[in-house]
Each structure stands twice: as structure tokens, then as C-alpha cells.
Design brief:
434 Repressor (Amino-terminal Domain), about 70% helix
């Protein structure tokens, strides 16, 4: 797994955490977007990992959710450390997962995947 994929995986973990925090606060994407002064589509793109937020945006996001940015970063770092062995095994190709296998994991049933 290349550096770009590592960064993408790290970003997906972070935005997943931010989504959890939004939901824990009982906010819709539109409500959070309003607090951020952004359109709802911005929040949606961030949560789908289509857009990467920088440190300034992360701080604003945490303020809008009334959570400590340092705590979020520490929790993110801790989760990354927990996932490190998994990411390492993927990187060294000890664990491979095809689209077919992913479909089986998601559904619990064999999936016929066509290219």
C-alpha cells in the first residue's frame, strides 16, 4: 500500500470520527454546516472522504461540535496506532482483499462481482 493510500485510510478514520461526533451531538449535516458557515455539501464531502480538511478546518469543526481538538487528535492517533498492524499487513501484502471478498464481508453472502 502506497503512501497515498495510507493517507487516504488515515483521513477516512478521522472523518469517520468527526461524523460520529456530529451524530453524538444530535446534529444533521445541514446544522453542522450552518455552524461552520459552509454549505451542507461541504460536510457531506468531508464525511465521505471526498475532501480532506486541513488543521484550521479541523479546529473549526471541533469548535462547532464543542469538542476539544486536542482530544480528537489524541483519539485519532490512538486509533491509528491500533490499526497500524492491520495497515502494515496490507502494505506488505500479507492480507489481500478483492472486491469479491469485500462484498462477502459486507453482506455475509457470496457476491458475484463483474468488472
Amino acid at each position: 500500500m502506497g503512501k497515498g493510500k495510507d493517507l487516504a485510510a488515515q483521513n477516512r478514520l478521522l472523518v469517520g470520527m468527526l461524523r460520529e461526533l456530529r451524530l453524538d451531538n444530535g446534529l444533521t449535516q445541514a446544522e453542522l454546516a450552518s455552524r461552520l458557515g459552509k454549505p451542507q455539501s461541504f460536510v457531506s464531502k468531508v464525511e465521505r472522504a471526498e475532501r480532506i480538511i486541513d488543521a484550521v478546518e479541523l479546529r473549526r469543526w471541533c469548535i462547532a461540535l464543542d469538542v476539544d481538538v486536542v482530544r480528537v487528535i489524541r483519539d485519532w492517533s490512538k486509533r491509528l496506532q491500533e490499526l497500524k498492524p492491520i495497515l502494515q499487513s496490507i502494505r506488505t501484502r500479507q492480507w489481500r482483499c478483492s472486491r469479491h471478498t469485500l462484498g462477502e464481508i459486507r453482506t455475509g453472502h457470496p457476491v458475484n462481482v463483474t468488472s
